[in-house]
Amino acid sequence: MYNNNKVKIINKKKMTEKLFKGNSSSLQRYQDFFIGTRKIGDLLTYELVIFFSGALPGAIGLMLRKILYPRLVKTVGKNVFWGRNIALRCPKKIQIGDQVAIDDNCLLDAKGSDEGLTIGNNITIARDTILLCKNSWIHIGDQCVIGSHSMLGSVGGIRLGNKVMVGGQVYIGGGRYKTEETNTAMMDQDVFSTGPVIIEDDVWLGAGVTVLDGVRIGNGSFIGAGAVITENIKPFTIVAPHQKFLKLTRLPNASHTNREGTSTKNDLTINEEKPKIVKTQAKDKPQLYSIILQAVLDAVHEINMQLPEEDRLKKDETTILYKNSKECNMDSLALLNLIVTTEQKVEEEIGTPISLTNEEIITNDRNPLQTIGTFADHITKLII
């Protein structure tokens, strides 16, 4: 049921009510919750397969599960490998393609949807991952990888395209509790969904990413670690949390006593004082440009420490940064890291925060990122 704002209202029934209330017997409730049917044959097959092969270690266990587990699910392809202690809920709603590997301790739960759970071909699902059809379907395309400890919890539907990489500890889905009735506990109110999660082809979700319901992520996009995605992402977009850290050096410029009892001075120079310019006093453009240029070069130095030696940038005004240049080895992610690091360095130098992460600076064909010098000149003009 959808309201006028295209929000699906879900009448949630508590797990305890499903398990402990009603006129059904304990056996029937067990069948409804775990197996999905009340057929005695399905019950016996489920119990025997899980008992004799579910937790069996080694090659024998792997071989038995490869033979027996296909009897539990709706359809299964060739060369499917089942790890230990894989929990299946309503397996007759689960469809699995060819060459799928499901590691230990995963949960595949299809009980919340008639459409159930569909897994494509050439899929790797790492250990301790949960695929949960709470109230709707999950469809995983071909050649996908899902990292360990991830959870796909479908309230409005989840669709992963082809060649999607999902990092560890990623959460996809949602469903949100209503909060309007202040006299009723939130857990006792209904939940709602703003629509399915659609992740198109060739998307990479970094570790710890959260994607809420109703979001579409366009093909070819990269979502940086720890990001929380609450809105649609256009194709071929890099999304990275903009985080700045306070970094302090331990024991700066202090004298230490070595084992022989002699004094040695700390060689660290990170905290050496540098002249700073306040934005309102920055009238001398050449002087300001020199300071900004040094900030950019400092940022380049930090980025170089993260790059292979053959890809490191020369610390010179003429060094090419422009992303489409064949003379530059920086990829889009390294370029974004350079921009964010430069923001931090410039703020340290002039004492004023500055934002450089706008879409135009990266996408404009005549952008200021052609060289280190043009980048420094662009920042200087922004400040003055």
What is the secondary structure topology, with strand pairs?
Layout: E1 8-10, H1 15-20, H2 26-35, H3 40-53, H4 58-68, E2 75-76, E3 81-82, E4 87-89, E5 94-96, E6 100-102, E7 107-109, E8 117-119, E9 123-125, E10 130-133, E11 138-140, E12 145-146, E13 151-154, E14 158-160, E15 165-166, E16 171-173, E17 176-177, E18 191-193, E19 197-199, E20 204-205, E21 210-212, E22 216-217, E23 222-223, E24 228-229, E25 238-239, E26 255-257, E27 263-265, H5 285-304, H6 332-350, H7 359-363, H8 372-383
Parallel strand pairs: 2-5, 3-6, 4-7, 5-8, 6-9, 7-10, 8-11, 9-12, 10-13, 11-14, 12-15, 13-16, 14-19, 15-20, 16-21, 19-22, 20-23, 21-24, 23-25
Antiparallel strand pairs: 1-18, 17-18, 26-27
Helix pairs in contact: 5-6, 5-8
What does this 3D model show about the protein?
Helix 5 crosses helix 6 (332-350) and helix 5 packs across helix 8 (372-383). The relative contact order is 0.06. With 384 residues, this protein is an alpha/beta fold. It has 8 helices and 27 strands. The chain has 2 domains: 8-239, Hexapeptide repeat proteins (UDP N-Acetylglucosamine Acyltransferase, domain 1); 272-383. It is elongated, with a radius of gyration of 28 Å. The strands form 5 sheets. Strands 3-6-9-12-15-20-23-25 form an 8-stranded parallel sheet. The longest helix has 20 residues, at 285-304. A hairpin with a 5-residue loop joins strand 26 and strand 27.
